[in-house]
Amino acid sequence: MLATLLERDTGVALPMSRALVERYGGELRFPKRSPCVFANFVSSVDGIVSYDEPGIERAREVSAGHAADRFMLALLRAAADAVIVGAGTLRKEPGVWTAASVAPDLADDFADLRARLHLRPHPTTILVTSSGEADASLPVFRGEAPVVIATTREGARRAGSLPNARAEIVGDSGPLRPRALIDLAVRESAGGRILTEGGPTLFGQFLQDGVIDELFLTIAPRLAGRSRDKRRLALVEGTAFTPSGSPRGKLLSLKLADEYLFARYALRDGGARGEG
Ligand SMILES: NC(=O)c1ccc[n+]([C@@H]2O[C@H](COP(=O)([O-])OP(=O)(O)OC[C@H]3O[C@@H](n4cnc5c(N)ncnc54)[C@H](OP(=O)(O)O)[C@@H]3O)[C@@H](O)[C@H]2O)c1
Questions:
Q1: Ligand 1 residue neighbourhood (C-beta within 6 Å)
Q2: Helix or strand run (H / E) with residue 83
């Protein structure tokens, strides 16, 4: 159960069941704007999202699989028309991007929420890759959620034979433009609530192009550290901002479960300018 420390989000409340409202510690509201692009990550106190070493690279090593973080993952997936995921994350997190896969105990409540929102049973998974290289045996290619591979001309040749997936050419060569990826997600899911779970490289590009409306960030009560040998991955990779060009957050909501903090920021300031 999340305890609410601050709540100043506005917008339209999702038609959540009483069980979901109780677990979330109140209503979850989203702006009416479409598309509305929101990101969800878990980081250590020092901003690390992956220990980035074989066997300990997954997000759950940061979150320690905390139930409240899994609930947040599930709730945001349940609210989304589409979930955009980079190929680096797909390779390290061999799962499926549905609500029930991370919170099976509340599967009926999430299914009910999607039905009330007139959404398809699962958000469309949009996998982003220039190379088109993906392991056909991964669970996402056997799951119930529709899968679209957003890729290049060359990538489509490689990804064309993946099961339960369709390749869409979004650009001649990579990196693919964030706005084109959002447009694809809107088109493919026939909806405007677009979640991205990163990873950090894709998120950096989205920030640079100013397409992220909101960031949901779970801060796990641990410090990962980094060294020359063990660099780890931070929340934003591959993009660096100047102090004056850094995207700024307006804190919309702050919740607490055990020692975990759940922050929600509005990010859209139109002024983000990355370098590199
Ligand atoms: N803590 C958390 O909440 C969280 C969330 C997500 C991920 N993670 C962790 O982050 C790590 C992965 O990090 P990452 O930075 O490698 O992840 P990523 O951003 O998911 O993947 C990078 C890859 O995605 C593709 N890509 C990204 N942007 C693209 C674009 N604009 N156009 C075309 N392709 C694009 C490229 O794939 P190709 O090489 O195929 O072209 C690129 O190599 C994993 O350890 C994962 O567990 C943690």
A1: 41-42, 49-50, 52, 57-59, 62, 86-89, 92-93, 128-131, 133, 174-176, 197-202, 205, 233, 237
A2: strand 82-86
Which CATH number goes with the domain that contains 155?
A: 3.40.430.10
Atom 16 of ligand 1: nearest residue by CA position: 88
Residue 269: pLDDT band by 50, 70, 90 thresholds? Answer: low
Q: Is residue 180 part of a domain?
A: yes
Closest residue by Cα to residue 263 from 243, 235, 244: 235
Q: How confident is the model at residue 272 (pLDDT cuts 50, 70, 90)?
A: very low
Residue 230 in any domain: the answer is no
pTM for the model: 0.96
Q: Is residue 229 part of a domain?
A: no
Q: CA 205, CA 221: separation in Å to the nearest integer?
A: 27
Sheet arrangement for strand 193-196: 3-7, 250-257, 260-266, 214-220, 36-44, 193-196, 82-86, 124-128, 147-152, 165-171
Which domain range does residue 166 map to? 3-224+249-268
